[in-house]
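Page 42, continued from yesterday. The earlier attempt failed because a stray header line got pasted into the input along with the sequence. Redoing it now with the clean sequence only.
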Amino acid sequence: MPSTHTDRYAISSATLAAGLLFTATQAPTPLYYVFGDLKVLTPAEIQHYTTHTRRHRSGAWIMVTTHQAHPFSDVFGAIANRAA
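This time it went through. Structure tokens are written below.
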């Protein structure tokens, strides 16, 4: 879930590193992070969006604004459009 005060997602640095490694070794298998508000980002997008931001002082978390995430239906299609 996004923060209720800052409109950001907190993503573990270890989770991002694992996602980037997975996508590098298992290409072309896609990997998506789906957040509690049903918005979607890929590991590469998270890495790109956080390149110019300040990281948490412990280095354990990466913060990404919720405005950069994609709606679930934009990525996977609307429920009515999916095959049964």
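Notes: The longest strand covers residues 8-12.
Reminder to self: strip header lines before submitting.
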